[in-house]
């Protein structure tokens, strides 16, 4: 049985994909250097990047910080089960917590999947006991601590 569902085509061409790939490797690469690699002028590259930003293809440029180099030694993933009527309220509260680096609504009975970073175990414990457990609607929390990172996706490669 075939499906009528079709993923819309991206509004980008092969040159845009090359530019995105170069920016993904190093977002500080100059328009001139990108232009040399894709055989376009600096102005043409700048125009394309601006268009990709306006279309929402590029959401933002950011810096990736090594947590261990700034005193962050605990990385943990949490599955937070929330009573359905409190899901949005809990999510809105957690998205404003500095320790929370990502937060997703997952399939299952009102599950939030969250990643958090902490300087040490005591800071994580304070977060749990003072900020997460007291939230109205939180039914259960499952925590898994990261042992070793093999790969971390920072954006999407094309």
Automatic annotation (TrEMBL):
Domain HTH asnC-type: residue ranges: 12-73
SMART domains named in the record: HTH_ASNC (SM00344)
Keyword field: DNA-binding, Transcription, Transcription regulation
GO annotation, cellular component aspect: cytosol
Pfam family, one: HTH_AsnC-type
Protein name according to UniProt: AsnC family transcriptional regulator
UniProt-listed GO biological process terms: response to amino acid
Recorded GO MF terms: sequence-specific DNA binding
SUPFAM superfamilies (alphabetical): Dimeric alpha+beta barrel, Winged helix' DNA-binding domain
Superkingdom, natural source: Bacteria
PANTHER family in the cross-refs: LEUCINE-RESPONSIVE REGULATORY PROTEIN (PTHR30154), TRANSCRIPTIONAL REGULATOR AZLB (PTHR30154:SF34)
């Amino acid at each position: 049985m075939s499906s009528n569902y079709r993923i819309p085509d991206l509004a980008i061409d092969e040159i845009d994909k090359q530019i995105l790939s170069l920016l993904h490797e190093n977002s500080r690469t100059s328009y001139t250097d990108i232009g040399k690699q894709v055989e376009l002028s600096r102005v043409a590259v700048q125009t394309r990047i601006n268009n990709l930003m306006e279309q929402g293809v590029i959401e933002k440029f950011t810096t990736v910080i090594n947590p261990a180099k700034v005193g962050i030694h605990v990385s943990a993933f949490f599955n937070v089960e929330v009573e359905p009527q409190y899901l949005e309220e809990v999510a809105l509260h957690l998205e404003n917590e500095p320790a929370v680096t990502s937060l997703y609504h997952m399939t299952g009975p009102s599950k939030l999947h969250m990643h958090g970073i902490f300087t040490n175990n005591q800071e994580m414990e304070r977060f749990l006991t003072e900020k997460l457990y007291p939230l109205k609607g939180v039914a259960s929390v499952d925590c898994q601590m990261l042992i070793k990172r093999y790969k971390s996706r920072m954006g999407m490669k094309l």
